[in-house]
Amino acid sequence: MKRYLVFEDGTYFEGTAFGSDTETIGELVFTTGMSGYQEAITDQSYNGQIINFCAPMIGNYGVAKKFNESKKPTIKGVLAREITDVTGNYQSEMTIDEFLKQENVPGIRRIDTRAITLKIRKAGSLKAAIVDDLDSGLIDQISTWKLDDSQLEKSITPTPAEFAGSGKHVVVLDFGYKESIISELKKRCLKVTIVPGNTSLEKIKNLNPDGILLSNGPGDPTRHTDILPTIVELEKLYPVFGICMGHQLLCLANGAKTFKMKFGHRGFNHPVKDLETGRIYFTSQNHGYAVDAESVEDTDLKVTQVELNDQTVEGVEHTKYDAFSVQFHPDAKPGPHDADFLFNKFWNAINK
């Protein structure tokens, strides 16, 4: 069955339907990852977005629920040049088509993903719709679409969750966390408590943490300005580690500014340079906002890592307190794992 991707500027692409038969509107973004499609689809940082996969084929190794980054995807749709309907992976439980049907996510295959990527790179991230029929009133619907707060709330743990461990206690402030972050903490035998990102300072202190982790999450970090005063106080009391959204919030709390990128960083192959060691490592990234480098200069933060393609800020450290953050995902699943040593750095900070 034919299915269409329609942009807010009126242009459209034609392909073949797969996944659920629902129609949808979202922000269209692209990811350059050659693998990890399941992790991307279930990453809450993609909340409200249609993912255009640059890899020429996805679905090769099927889907297994144990590799999900969250309980339920909140993406709006999937675009792929081609998907596989048969998999040979012994861990596979279903095909990607079956998975998207189960999760009520529509997709389009046999669509020109390269042309779509080039369009986004030129124009920036655009709103688009996945539909089965072209309708004259569709452009107005796309133009007025906005992701509502109730959708964002679905990315966040509504009540605290605990994971036992023999080590120190880490409280994770959740803005849409990935399971791989929790896995890295549990690998180090840390006790973990996950709380909503807007949890009050007093409630966090009552949990008796030894360290604080600010998680990743979707959208504009300035939507979370209510938590900034809490972060300011937390960094005075405990070691703090921020990842992705958590990085942006740590920077905002200390007086820096953020901006919306033209088309963001999404994929598993972004080169980052450590300014202190000179080491370059490949990283997993998924964000549409970044920290303004000039705004960091007037704060108590120092830039520690930059992205080599566009020189955007990829990491900071506080010059007075034991707090640091990175824009990329050191917890990367399925990889790369070049930067997972940062969890050891956090472990060392809370075990001083």
Structure described in brief:
This protein is an alpha/beta fold and 352 residues long.
> Please, what is the CATH homologous superfamily of the largest domain?
Class I glutamine amidotransferase (GATase) domain
Main sheet specs: 10 strands, mixed
| Secondary-structure element series | EEEHEEHEHEHHEEHEHEHEHEEHEEEH
Helix share bin: 10-25%
Return residue spans where pLDDT drops below 50 for at least 5 consecutive residues. none
How many β-strand stretches?
Answer: 17
CATH fold-type name of the largest domain: Rossmann fold
Structural class, please? alpha/beta
Look at the structure and give the CATH class of the largest domain: Alpha Beta
Number of domains: 2
**Number of alpha- plus pi-helical segments:** 11
What's the CATH architecture of the largest domain?
3-Layer(aba) Sandwich
Order of adjacent strands in the largest pleated sheet: 8-10-9-11-12-17-16-15-13-14
Q: Which band does the percent of strand residues land in?
A: 25-35%
**Mean pLDDT across all amino acids:** 95
Euclidean distance between termini CA atoms: 61 Å
Q: What's the shape?
A: globular
Radius of gyration: 20 Å
